[in-house]
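Can't paste images in this forum, so I'm doing it all in text. The chain is below; anyone willing to post the predicted structure tokens underneath?
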Amino acid sequence: MFRIVYGIVIRFYGLAICIASLFNKKAKQWKTGRRGQWEKININLAKQENIVWFHCSSLGEFEQGRPVIEEYKNHNPNAFILLTFFSPSGYEIRKNYENADLILYLPLDVKRNVTKFLDLIKPRFAVFVKYEFWYNYLHQLWLRNIPLFLISANFREDQWFFKSYGRSFRKMLGYFSHIFVQNEQSLKILTRYGVENVTIAGDTRVDRVYHISKEVKENRIAEKFKRKKMLIVAGSTWKQDEEILIKYINESGDNIKWIIAPHEIKKENISRIQKDIIKPSIIYSTLKEKRDSNAEVLIIDNIGMLSSLYRYGNIAYVGGGFGKGIHNILEPATFGIPVIFGPNYKKFREACELKKQGGAIPVNNFSDLEKAFNELIYKDEVRQKAGNISKQYIKKNLGSVQLIVDKLLTN
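Text version of the structure:
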């Protein structure tokens, strides 16, 4: 009965996306991106034998799978890496990722597609990242005795696996050859429900941000902009973040410098931010390396620079917490600076743990933000202690990637 109902739901889901593609950009990308894929697979995989398949739902999951892909490729350079995405937000941004040999959209999880897909790719093993549980794919991989791994997984008691109606869903967990979870809570939950072959590996992103921090190049513009003043870096901010941030910036003293790297870098959004700031500000693309500026606020209008800017900061604010959820707080933490973020953080293990330990401060409104900034800006010992906690958190959680890759290399 479960298979029948699941099959019907998935087909209706696919149909709904096709209908939505008439007026929704992402749905259109989801549909058109899958056209011609069978031919593409045939052409690229016709003579390949050493195929390793990594699957990520979207961009966030990719960032957790990425360090594993790269480390595995270092150990096994002859492996053919097949990378699939379910969502356009992952595929469209990473479709040219250099460490994968072929990047595709995952065909819809109906039995006909799954059988055809696996017949064509014949992977040595498959790695699913974090939250991907497609019944037909998991079941068929299990039936074919193809090793299947789940990495960077998080489990909570309120997930549908563990509900009274979740027995059929829970059965899917048994199809994995090994599950690498991020924390002890996940291990305890799985053990209680009889799921074996589970290892606590931690968060693979910790390894990645740590290694990036060791390879970051100097940014002379940011260095010159900071001079010897206190610098606060606000990264991946949304409008809700910017409203309270800008209010604080406008009221703050002139002994503080600010860098704002908004999530949305369209010209009109950059202009809005600059217009709302009453202090002298400048946009990064207009600030030349040799040009002096009396600006107190530097607004970043490009993508890819943020992680390297945190190295110059004394305090970080990470956006997203007043929306769907915070962005990556591990990037500033690895540079040993305290982190402030909005209220929507409780699904992020690293945020909860850093808050508990004292390396991060969540805020619910402007009053909270003002209190947090004042505490960190004007009390050196408080700021330094919080920064050290962040740095030690990163160091204590290293090693996840190698643990996973060591297991993959045995297959």
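The first strand starts at residue 51 and ends at 56. The chain is about 45% helix and 15% strand.
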